[in-house]
Design brief:
Order of helices and strands: EEEEEEH
CATH class: Mainly Beta
CATH topology: PH-domain like
CATH architecture: Roll
Domain DM10: 3-91
Largest sheet: 6 strands, antiparallel
Strand order of the largest sheet: 4-3-2-1-6-5
Pfam family, one: PH_NDK7_N
InterPro entries: DM10_dom, DM10_NDK7
Number of helices: 1
Subcellular location: Cytoplasm, Cytoskeleton, Flagellum axoneme
Helix content: under 10%
Shape: globular
Protein name: Nucleoside diphosphate kinase 7-like
Number of domains: 1
Amino acid sequence: MNHSERFVFIAEWYDPNASLLRRYELLFYPGDGSVEMHDVKNHRTFLKRTKYDDLRLEDLFIGNKVNIFSRQLMLVDYGDPYTARQLGSRKEK
């Protein structure tokens, strides 16, 4: 596995306080198990790259819900063509 490899997903999170559906770019780095999140609408970093042991590559497929720091994110799309090519065959089980 390439240590600089990263997978990008578009994830949605329902914000109950604002009653809004927020979209994030979820980046997962399998080399060290770290995650990073960017707010799609505001083009800002939401979560700096940080190690997160509770997320595995097997959890990342379109239609799955993943918990990252107590936020339940729904994976709705691939964030880049590389991710779609590498993980596109892994659909919802």
